[in-house]
Design a protein that fits this description.
428 residues, alpha+beta, five-stranded mixed beta sheet, five-stranded antiparallel beta sheet
């Protein structure tokens, strides 16, 4: 027990637990959260745009990249935030817990940031598996928490800015003091081969006043145990954090980026699997369209005010067909390029006299769901690559991929690539 307590005491004062290490890990964590926030804003406004917003349709893989970064950076936050907590762990239980109003703000911002961040990245990860063991709406909570995380991060950075500046670089004043360097740049104790600062044998050791009573005896008993070697060096700690981050990213990013697909072990979607050699997010059974999608009465209705055109699948197939290479890029992070064949949407809209400034409302055969009805801006509706797709990867659309017809457009989230199309309505 004595050695265990001594080892615990030594671990709490381990080399990685210092302000410089906290700044280094914090810098990486801030970058990851800012990437998540920026790409998350883009995804949100693609799905719920303001009336004045217009988006780029090139490159066609834009959303594939931004959402892949969003999910990958979110996964990288797990080892980074655990590493950050490791570096500051003893400070979380300091006494007195609050020393001043500024100190209260600092601790409150840390508590809010850590709590909100852990919830945010956890529910985000579970969303990639489409597992929702909670009763609140994921999209609404994930959206609101993103501002809580960034706001508390901004407050924390503002409060700790003097300390951050002091330990920002390897040659900052605070960092040099941690290495034991004199103002002239000399290191009294020298450097060990591993890069750690060796203690100066001639330097006086400041001793605190002895603690009396039973507590003092217990402390002296613990301190009298053989001193263990440091569990981990600064370099070893940074290596562990770096390897952990690189590992979780490499083993999950394959669902978003083709180059890493051979290493896709933990991500829930695998490229090339499923009907039409494409993964499926929402099945026809889940959408309750097993009967209506194959009904011989199905027809696509295109309307622009009083002007209406109705086309059966056979009539759509009889129109000029276009082939495009476009990805399916889902908000859960997975994506895959596919070859689509169908009718250009703008050619169908021309049949009802639509103007290139007009947007579109798309309605699915789905019985219910948040994306049964979706909006499409004119920049997508009149793009030459946007199709009412009838085939994919050389075969007729599988019912799980939207048979008898679905929408496919460049740079759009998968949830907006409406399957089982029923109506297209031009908006004024």
């Amino acid at each position: 027990m004595r050695r265990l307590l001594a080892a615990t005491q030594q671990a709490l004062a381990a080399p990685p637990r210092n302000p410089r290490m906290a700044v280094v890990i914090g810098r990486l964590l801030a970058i990851a959260f800012l990437l998540c926030f920026g790409t998350g804003l883009y995804s949100h406004f693609l799905q719920e745009p303001e009336p004045w917003m217009r988006f780029s349709t090139v490159p066609a893989q834009l959303y594939q990249v931004t959402q892949g970064i969003h999910i990958t950076a979110g996964i990288a936050c797990f080892p980074l935030i655990l590493g950050k907590l490791y570096t500051i762990y003893p400070q979380l239980f300091q006494t007195p817990p609050v020393k001043s109003p500024l100190h209260l703000l600092e601790r409150a911002s840390i508590a809010l940031f850590v709590g909100a961040s852990l919830v945010q990245i956890t529910i985000g990860l579970l969303n990639t598996y489409q597992w929702y063991p909670w009763k609140f709406g994921f999209r609404e909570v994930h959206w609101a928490l993103s501002f809580v995380v960034i706001g508390s991060l901004a407050i924390h950075i503002a409060v700790k800015l003097p300390m951050i500046a002091r330990f920002w670089t390897r040659n900052s004043e605070g960092t040099r003091e941690l290495r034991g360097e004199t103002p002239g740049g000399e290191t009294p104790g020298g450097e060990t081969p591993g890069g750690e600062t060796a203690p100066d044998a001639a330097a006086p050791v400041a001793e605190s006043a002895p603690v009396g009573g039973v507590t003092g005896r217990i402390f002296r008993w613990i301190d009298g145990a053989p001193s263990p070697e440091p569990a981990v060096s600064r370099r070893g700690f940074m290596t562990a954090v770096g390897v952990s981050t690189a590992t979780v990213v490499a083993l999950t990013a394959g669902q978003s980026f083709a180059a890493l697909s051979p290493f896709n072990i933990f991500a829930p979607r695998v490229k090339g699997t499923g009907p039409n050699a494409l993964p499926v997010n929402r099945t026809a059974k889940a959408a309750q369209v097993l009967d209506t999608a194959v009904s011989p009465d199905w027809a696509l209705t295109i309307s622009n005010g009083p002007r209406t055109v109705t086309l059966t699948r056979a009539e759509l197939l009889a129109l000029p067909q276009t082939t495009v290479e476009l990805p399916i890029s889902c908000v859960e992070g997975w994506s895959q390029m596919a070859t689509w064949k169908g009718v250009r949407l703008r050619e169908l809209l021309n049949k009802v006299g639509a103007d290139t400034s007009q947007g579109l409302k798309l309605t699915s055969l789905e019985k219910k769901g948040g994306y049964r009805v979706t909006q499409m801006g004119p920049e997508y509706a009149f793009d030459a690559s946007t199709l009412v797709a009838l085939e994919v990867n050389g075969d007729t659309l599988d019912i799980d991929h939207g048979y008898p017809a679905r929408m496919i457009a460049p740079g759009r989230p998968g949830v907006l690539q409406t399957k089982w199309l029923s109506k297209l309505e031009v908006e004024a």
